[in-house]
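Q: Please design a sequence for this.
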């Protein structure tokens, strides 16, 4: 606390005026660091949507394929460039502490909630629905985990994450687009995940 007070230019007594104990100070600091508003999706979701809208104009309609290729790439590029992911990973090492665990859980739920309406809209525009037993929340959780894993590997071992993949298989009823730009491995995995967790909406309920 002395170091904190010195950095803030106040006396230790002034610090204890706001936080009666080191435990309360630590909890307040963790809440600030893990505040969802400081993390990636709140400020960057609009950028991902902009990329998807540009791709929609390019092909003439919204598709899961196009959205996965450009939206996923835009999202992970922003994640890789933020300090928040490094902080998140550092704090994950303390996930066995209840206060840290609860704050991380709250952050994950908030980030996933930001993207769920986008996922629902894109799947519906493709004329698909989530394949039971999967839900849009399951998909959001999977995308969050996939993003974190690829971010770690991409940052330390970028040569092993291809970024110029051509001829990704057509899974939905898309026509081959000869002008389609290359894919990266992460975006291709998002596309394959979307294919496996959704189905045509006209199928009868079972």
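A: Design:
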């Amino acid at each position: 606390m002395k170091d904190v007070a010195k950095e803030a230019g106040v006396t230790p007594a002034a610090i204890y005026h706001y936080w009666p104990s080191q435990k309360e100070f630590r909890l307040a600091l963790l809440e600030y660091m893990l505040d969802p508003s400081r993390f990636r999706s709140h400020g960057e979701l609009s950028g991902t949507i902009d990329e998807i809208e540009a791709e929609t104009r390019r092909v003439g309609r919204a598709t899961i394929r196009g959205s996965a290729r450009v939206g996923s790439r835009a999202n992970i590029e922003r994640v890789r460039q933020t300090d928040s992911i490094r902080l998140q990973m550092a704090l994950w090492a303390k996930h066995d502490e209840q206060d840290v665990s609860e704050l991380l859980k709250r952050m994950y739920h908030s980030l996933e909630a930001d993207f769920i309406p986008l996922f629902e809209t894109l799947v519906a525009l493709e004329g698909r629905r989530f394949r039971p037993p999967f839900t849009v929340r399951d998909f959001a959780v999977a995308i969050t985990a996939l993003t974190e894993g690829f971010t770690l590997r991409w940052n330390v071992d970028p040569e092993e994450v291809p970024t110029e993949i051509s001829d990704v298989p057509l899974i939905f009823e898309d026509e081959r687009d000869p002008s389609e730009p290359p894919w990266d491995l992460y975006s291709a995995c998002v596309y394959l995940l979307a294919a496996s967790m959704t189905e045509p909406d006209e199928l009868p309920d079972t």
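Q: Thanks. Anything notable?
A: Residues 1-33 form one domain. The chain has a mean pLDDT of 84.
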